[in-house]
Design goal:
The protein is mainly β. The protein folds into 4 domains: 1-47; 55-146, Sandwich (Immunoglobulin-like); 159-242, Sandwich (Immunoglobulin-like); 254-332, Sandwich (Immunoglobulin-like), CATH 2.60.40. It is 13% helix and 40% strand. The protein is built from 1 helix and 21 strands. The protein has one helix at 2-45; strands spanning 63-70, 73-79, 87-95, 100-107, 112-115, 124-132, 144-146, 159-162, 166-170, 178-185, 205-209, 216-224, 229-234, 238-240, 254-258, 261-265, 276-284, 288-295, 299-303, 309-317, 329-332. The longest helix is centred in the N-terminal third of the chain and has 44 residues, at 2-45. 19% of the residues are buried.
């Protein structure tokens, strides 16, 4: 009986060991399966989804193609208001007769192109076509016609005068039937493609609103009287610096005495850019006049004891500089 019990115990021990080994192996297999599944998921996440039909749609056509002949260049521009997610590029086509040929392609971020390979006196036509990532082309844009001719010379002898509330610019005529465009910028040498005048100027002069907070720059281009813009070289750049503006001296003084005070007033300066007035009082013959007060309005009140005399002069102050002193004003209390 003892022998049988020993054999059963040994068998049970072997069975337990086998089960334990099977459990461990099963757990390892389960872990490997989970790792394999995770790898499959990671690999499949990196795969690209199949293309949709939207990628094969014809892109919208560019719009509002414009052409400007400037100096020795033809400047083309266009607009594209549709989404660009499936867009790749724009193709620029040119025709000297009825046959268009592609002359360049630009990226979808561009909306302009400069053509420098043309002949003066030869008529050209331009159009722009959009191309998708699948090389599918849009319909044609509008066609713009232009005939670049010899351009007039740049305007010369530019001058300007500062008015009460405006700036007046003038220059020499560049010839008969020549028009002009004015360009303005706050950054020296960097101008927009579009002038500030709505229509080309027929006379060599222009008036603009006066900028008094910072310097501005101007340049002028002559152009031919044509359906399209055909401009010559830019004129010399002029700078309008408010720190150089000098107001006229104050005039038209009046004094009103009342007991121990005097109210002094004068005509308001015509310059809209006058910021204030300065009142100077004469100390003595040696030291001259000393600044005693500033006034934002053309008037101030002076208080003093009876029997006192004051000799005054007043200036107008612009953005930086001040005018010449006014006439001497003597006040006796």
């Amino acid at each position: 009986m003892k022998t049988v019990s020993t054999q059963r115990s040994a068998f049970s021990s072997k069975k337990l060991k086998f089960c334990s080994l099977f459990t461990v192996h099963y757990s390892l297999i389960a872990v490997y399966c989970l790792l394999f599944a995770a790898c499959i998921m990671l690999v499949s996440c990196g795969k690209k989804t199949p293309p949709t039909l939207k990628a094969y749609e014809k892109p919208s056509a560019p719009e509002a193609v414009k052409a400007i002949h400037r100096e020795d260049r033809i400047l083309l521009s266009w607009s594209y208001t549709s989404k660009k997610e499936n867009l790749k590029e724009f193709h620029i086509l040119r025709a000297e007769d009825s046959s268009f040929q592609k002359i360049a392609s630009v990226t979808k971020e561009e909306n302009s192109y400069t053509d420098v390979k043309f002949k003066t006196g030869t008529p050209y036509k331009y159009k722009v076509v959009a191309g998708s990532l699948k090389n599918i082309l849009s319909e044609d844009s509008n066609v713009i016609a232009i005939k670049p001719d010899s351009v007039p010379p740049a305007p010369k002898n530019i001058s300007f005068t500062v008015g009460n509330d405006s700036l007046h610019i003038s220059w020499d005529s560049a010839g008969e039937n020549v028009l002009y465009n004015i360009y303005r910028t706050a950054e020296k040498g960097k101008y927009s493609i579009n002038p500030i005048n709505k229509e080309p100027l027929t006379a060599p002069k222009y008036s603009d609103n006066l900028e008094t907070s910072s310097s501005v720059y101007y340049t002028i281009r002559s152009l031919l009287n044509k359906e399209f813009r055909s401009e010559g070289h830019a004129s010399r750049e002029i700078m309008i610096d408010p720190s150089t503006f000098i107001p006229s001296k104050p005039q038209g003084f009046q004094t009103v005495v009342a007991d121990d005070r005097v109210v002094i007033s004068w005509k308001e300066n015509p310059e809209m850019w006058v910021t204030k007035y300065r009142i100077y009082d004469k100390v003595n013959e040696k030291d001259g006049f000393k600044l005693v007060k500033e006034s934002a309005t053309p008037a101030f009140t002076l208080r003093e004891k009876t029997g006192t005399r004051h000799t005054l002069r007043i200036t107008a102050v612009g953005p930086v500089k001040e005018s010449e002193p006014s006439e001497v004003i003597t006040v006796d209390f």
